[in-house]
Amino acid sequence: MTADTDRPAGRPKLAVWKFASCDGCQLTLLDCEDELLGIADKLQISYFLEASSAPGPGPYDLSLVEGSVTTQQDIERIRHIREVSRRLVTIGACATAGGVQALRNYADVAEFRAAVYARPDYIQTLETSTPISAHVPVDFELRGCPIDRGQLIEVITAYLVGRAPDVPEHSVCFECKRRGTVCVIVAHGTPCLGPVTHAGCGALCPAYGRGCYGCFGPSNSTNFPAFIPLLRRDGMNTLDVVRVLRTYNTAAPEFEAASRKELRG
Amino acid sequence: MTHRESRVLRIRSLARVEGEGALHLRLRDDQVDQARLQIYEPPRFFEAFLRGRSYTEPPDITSRVCGICPVAYQMSACRAVEDACGVIVDGQLAALRRLLYCGEWIESQTLHIYLLHAPDFLGADSAIDLARTWRTDVERGLRLKQAGNAVMELLGGRAIHPVNIRLGGFYRTPAASELRPLVERLRRARDDAEQTVQWVAGFDFPDAGCDYELLALAEPGTYAIESGNPTAMSAPSTAGLPADSDRALPTRTFGVREFGDHVVETQLPHSTALNSLLDGHRHLTGSLARYAISGQWLSPIALQAAQDAGLGDPRQGAVCRNPFRSIIVRAVEVLYAVDEALRIIDTYEPPPRPYLDVPPRAATGHGATEAPRGLLYHRYTLGAHGTVTDANLVPPTAQNQGAIEEDLRRLVQEHLGSGEPTDAELTNLCEKAIRNHDPCISCSTHFLKLTIERS
């Protein structure tokens, strides 16, 4: 997101949109208990179905989009949302990378339908789950499954004052060091995706003695040929490596390429 | 207009519910022909892609079904996989799980009370709209909600999709001193929760009832949350009582492993609807059911608040069957959850290990816990090396769908009989009736319901 020169007069209008998702990222906005009423003073929360039964008309100055695209109607809906949005920010792993539902991308969706539904013929869905950026231009992508509350506030604040959000793209390792957490790989031999995962969570998992599982997706500096042997050294086999890469950001290009390479051997 | 012809009412986007749904109601000659809750959340196929995953993964993966109640998914998943592996988590580890779950109850129920449901009773569109005239109350709600989040953040690492939960317990358990800062916050929250019960008890409630079986877990001696056996209370009509009767009725209990024998998904003729029926009857899970089944085990402070709020004394067989008053029951449950969290912290001693080992074995396991909106059941079948070969998730909203539709049908029918309501009035009424049950549509997508329109 670049600095805005054509800022709207009056309170800018905020819209929150949902595609295939768990609602957790938009809930993060309601979890800003200390800031919510303050944000509502600065921004007109114009369209937010989860929170309001009085949706206001567009166009919108800032659209936050949660969820991935999995139906034909949603392809049309995201195009419309783009048209009526001055700035469009994706929130979370589904909107940014396709989400956990992108696991269908490796499977036969007809078989998936039959496995879950008694009448699969009534379920209309696309063969793939894709991020918003596969369909329309996106101004900024906020990572995470779920997103971090502090980063969401940063994105909204940055928008309000017309500057780029300060959201670092380095790996979780930096956050561990800053937090003072002992490295779980070095100290305990625990497999950890921290070295290749985008920062933003505050290095939560290592702080709880658990290896990072990559819920913020790839960082800006992944080096899988060097990294995968570390996972193997710490006890993971090919199936384990594929599984850990194929979760909430499975369709992120770096994770996807690495998991495919693993399977090819 | 004295004679109404066929009329179709559509609410295209339900607001202030979790997930996306719509309502389709067909009226013909002043008779409600059909009430249909249509869920257009796109399917995400969790049960399909869980197959082939490791048995350690369902707690994290299924938490992504619902960002509003991730702990419920993690707990039901843990219990089901542990059941398959023959492991029982008890003692302080079980107490910590209950504490975490109390955090989710406080957060999620308060969210529903203040941000989603209260605006209906006070003529507002949203909590932000509400804050213009009821600022002190909305701030109290946000503070209370935050206390629930604080419990989840401390124990789970974060409130949405916590990272510290694993099979057998936790990755890391806190020292007693780490829990202590929560105490002051929860004491304040207890005051806020008491005031919440008083606040919502002052709302105006239409008369209504529900002639369904009530289904909730029961764990004698405690208000069942993270464990217990499914227990059903008969519908009032079976005892010749009206739907709004506040009398407790006989219950029957079955094991979690028999859940699938009793709660059966059926496909109705002429529609693609999948409806859950309990032994062939429509049933309701959630706050009203829990209060009926476990109300006698509430803590003294919660029991007193319930009585002061006009809910009667559950120890004397009082139940609440008015879905509009579910907001009071939710508030009582929040008060209980705060009180219970304080009790658990007070008696906490760190367990010797943060988790029990859960070695895999080829078996099928069942788990059920009380999500904020009702009973959430998971079943997994594991292969010899711990690979999931089959998964089944039955969320509360899917079970409640039939009851919600029946509520809508009856309410609209009553209103048609008492005047000439406009579409806008009916729409408003239906939205409120749906929110009475706090439906979580994100969870229920695999109960997607489409009905063929017949002319």
UniProtKB/TrEMBL annotation, chain A:
Keyword set, alphabetical order: Oxidoreductase
Domain NADH:ubiquinone oxidoreductase-like 20kDa subunit, chain residue ranges per copy: 22-158
Xref: Gene3D superfamilies: NADH:ubiquinone oxidoreductase-like, 20kDa subunit
Protein's name in the database: Oxidoreductase
Species name: Streptomyces humicola
TrEMBL record, chain B:
Domain of life the protein comes from: Bacteria
Gene3D superfamilies: Cytochrome-c3 Hydrogenase, chain B
Protein name: Nickel-dependent hydrogenase large subunit
